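Quick one: structure for this chain?
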Amino acid sequence: MKKYSFYILLFTASNLFSQSDDIMKSIQNRFNNLTSISSDFAQKVKSSAANDFIISGEFKYKKKGKYRIEFDDKIIVSDGEAVWNYNAELNRVIITRADDSINLFSIEKIIFDFPSQCTIKTILNTNAEKRIQLIPANEMMGFKSAQIFTDNKYDIKKIIINDFIESIYELELFNMRIDEELSNQLFVFVPKAEAEIIDLR
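Got it. Here's what it folds into:
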């Protein structure tokens, strides 16, 4: 009986991992087939060391790592190669390389770069919602786990990342519009002549 139970356990675990890979591939395929995302967003940071931090605004994404985020008096823009972080109150823009600026809005990197370095587990698989968890193979990736939430079309609705100091970073997308025509000019930031520029590239 114990031997039989062991085989059942192995079979079930194998099915779960296969199911997780299938969901991950479906998310990747869906993302490959779209050209742009426009949505409202809410980002939350929960930490035991500080009060919760919440911001909301507008998010636009275009293929090849381009994104634009607007909230309060701040604009963050990436053309896939550089990231411009503009603070209107300070009239200051900080420029970094996109490769050095992985964040919750780096959806393309989370979907395509993370899975090969993680164990993938299915948390929820229903007709209405899918949820998978990515657990890094080592600590070099800088986080403990990540969860990706999608609807039944495999459009991403939420991403949650847990780090090693028990902070939780959550990005939720809503009022999503898929494949709107977005100009490339939206993803390049040209600061005003009087703005302070800090270029860290």
